[in-house]
User: Fold these one by one.
Assistant:
Number 1:
Amino acid sequence: MTIIAHISDTHFDGGGRALARARQTMAFLRGCNLDVILVTGDLADHGTVEEYDEVKAELVADIPVLMLPGNHDDRSAYRKILLDGDGAAPINQLKRAGGLLFALCDSTIPGEDEGLLAPETLDWLEGVLGAAQEPVFVALHHHPIRLNNPLLDGIRLRNPEDLAAVLQASSTPRAVFCGHAHAAAAGTFAGLPLIAAPGIFSTTRLPWTTTDELAWANTFDRDDVPGVVFHVVEGGELTSHFRSIGN
């Protein structure tokens, strides 16, 4: 059995609030019996070197912590601090952790909030899935399905059909994990489970839970507690458990 703690959207910004919420989250997770921690993007808020210094110092544990970029991240600064490299190409990584394979895909478009899996990323993923001899868990930042929030759905993945075609051409994918929504959600995509992690920095309000007309200025609930999804993989089956991290 492998247990994955899936979190997202820490938005380190050099301020005390983001730092405190990330520290609260990581302290909780370090006290759990886990195999892997997965962070699906928007590690930093402005993509600065100083913010990635915070990421590097805080998102650590005695188990593997897997990360990928989101629309608030900057590829060059990300690479410099977190990967000891340089360049502005998509950051795609294949990682083995907890006895599982994770294909970490870069769905960002530099300077934009919407997501896109570039041709080189799709080719890379196709190669990973084709070569894999075991199940692969695919992770990206942007959600490829509608999550019923018009604001967020307006900045989701632009080319979900391209991702679906790659996934459906292989027998190795087992699930798709994403972030970006700042709200826990579960669905299906390309015949696979699709799980979006809740946000650490804030939570998005759902349109049917309020009489307010939601706009970007009021859709994020900054008072809601951070959340985590625990994915349990056992005997080829996936079960996901959603929990809040209390104050």
Number 2:
Amino acid sequence: MTLLSSRTARPVEPGMLSRALEVAGRLANDATDVITATAGRGAHPDVTESPFDWVTDTDRILERHTRRVLTSEFPGVPVVGEESGADQGADEAEYRWVVDPVDGTANYVAGLPWCAYSLALLDDSGPVVGVLADPYRAQIYAAARGRGARANGHPLRLAGHGAPAGAIVCTELIPTGPWPGMGGFIERAAAARAGVRVLGSAALSIAQVALGHAGAAVLLSYREWDVAAAVALALEAGAVVLDRRGEASPLPADGLLVATPAMAERVLDWWQDTLPEGRRGQT
């Protein structure tokens, strides 16, 4: 297992970092106002294949607003969004923005207080800037490469969870339900006296590690916009980010473990041991 430091990524011009943080923070505050004003109050989702994969008017409104502001403030930097897809040239661009206007839409529709607005600036080394709005807790979480992570302006730095006993491990379901091996993973965690929680927002699950509330988060099914901002936060707070083979990656594409350094190896062992044989070591 190789630990990953945000300082190994290529440097970014300081003015770009500062401006990206300022604009992303402004957008996160806008999203907080919209989400808290509308959650659970007559939202009308479009039901697709899964009733937990809803798109609401709020998703569309926030993404359109985000695109409008980013296009004005950062001309030429493409935006990739959950609802509207990718701007032309996003795959080849030096930088790209990725946005999930409401991560945890099923919770939002139901009025459950657990969803987030997620916005990140990426380059070929991974997250450059990540900002999450946690509307129900009135928190804005922000991170920039090499500048650390903050919650409402207060610095975040991991210090605890030296042993699994008493720790919380967050995970999320895949679209069809539990991920392969999830039952065995929960049993392994319980045997070590750790608790597994499924809370309904990939971004906030990862953020709990950065905040020191959880020892680890394990995800098998996600998109870049779901997790990029939260991974930025976790990296800058001192967390370990690994793929399911145990290789360090700034933004794993196929299986993601975010953990405190003291918990990472143990949780990785539970995960790898309980994955079906055919899925171990896949890329």
Number 3:
Amino acid sequence: MNFTLEDPNNVSLWFPVNPSEVNIRRDKSFETISIIRGGELDVPQGVKVKEIAFSSFFPAVYDASYCKYQLLPDPQTAMNQLNTWMEGSDPLRLIITGTDVNVLVMLSAHNSSFKGGEPGDVYFDLIFRTWKDYRIRTLDESSGNSAGQTRPDIKLISATYQVQSGDSLWSIAKMKLGSGSRWRELYDGNRTVIGDDPDLIVPGQELVMPG
């Protein structure tokens, strides 16, 4: 299982130590209406934005018993990157391989702390809120453009994808093709690049997306 964050500029962060647990909070919103002689009535308004939270730490020194990889990021640099993302307005893609978590999120809060006897290590708590794309349309766009045609919002699938640290064929298929189950289709079209083992993909490999 890998925990990764990636921004629209392909800057990614692979968390070196897996959190012990992930908390996902889902709430339903209600509007409370007061009815004369009838008390209060809750009217459901829909599902609120989900919150995803987890805690871990950035170690200063590699330890094979809990680190996912050897080339560790500098703990303070990693925390500064998280802070930059939190202050920004672009959504991030949070991927937890081996689960269904492959969503666009905004980093809404993070806390960091240091512990005595562990110099250089930075502990953190992160809270994400799932992000939904929105677009404000003009009156002309709502009724059609100048040629009398509507303008559908179509998101084209990129022709190629460059493998990033922490990627798997399942996570790439989930992110780019909409379903992790299409990993076999992705592998079959890139077998000459990947080789005989679909679990061994290398950062920097250029994969061709299925049509």
Number 4:
Amino acid sequence: MPRLPKDFFLPAELMPEIVPSPPARPKDAATVVLLRDGRAGVEVFLLRRVTTMAFAAGMSVFPGGRVDPRDSDVSVAWAGPAPAWWARRFGCSPELARAVVCAAVRETFEETGVLLAGTDADRVVADTARYAEQRAGLESRDRSLAEFLAEERLVLRADLLRPWANWVTPVVEPRRYDTRFLLAALPAGQRADWATSEADLGGWQRPSDALAAWEAGEIALLPPTWFVLAELAECDSVAAAFAAERTVDRIVPKIIREGAVLRLLMPGDPDYGDTPAVADPPSAGAASR
């Protein structure tokens, strides 16, 4: 796993004046790292969240969002690895695994117009423009993914996705998410956009260019996004990323205060095991608050 730069500090507002006690229970979520092969190597699609969002406002992120209860609908036509296969890789129940994959497909379509589905197990939709009304209905929650796919006689293509990571929001935050990250390649003939109420900008970038933009202060990244970009920067193609050997461990960072800034402690860091989940640095002698 890459190591965060020493100057990776977090917005001070991530540690509220009153930390929830007990900590908020994380809500299940799915994030899709959409990939394509560009002229200079693999590229990822990033969205900049609007500043009015309650979580991660102004951050550059991958498409994704919370698992909706209707994502658990077992009537969704499914092609590819079964929910039990996903459950083994994400360390959860098959029921949750199915819902996570469905949420990943739904959120990707809502936020980028990319649809990981086809008329059968061997085909993928090439032009999603004809589904604009259905896309709007999904975003407004007027229809579910199962309803949309059934109406259009489409099959969810789980085989177009790969498990990549599992990040859980630190306990200090009032809004917490247990997020599974999945890779997906842009299907031939489709185009990604940012025609969503949740983003004001989007586009394709090489992972290394996105990291350079973050280092220059041009974009803001949450730690999980930074880590995934750093990992993908080592892959020279979509095929290489999909072929990478991955063990999906559940990562729960800790946040500590260092003066006026916040810093992240990761599992494996020297102080991680000795530091309370909500703390000032150990050397300051502070207790959980």
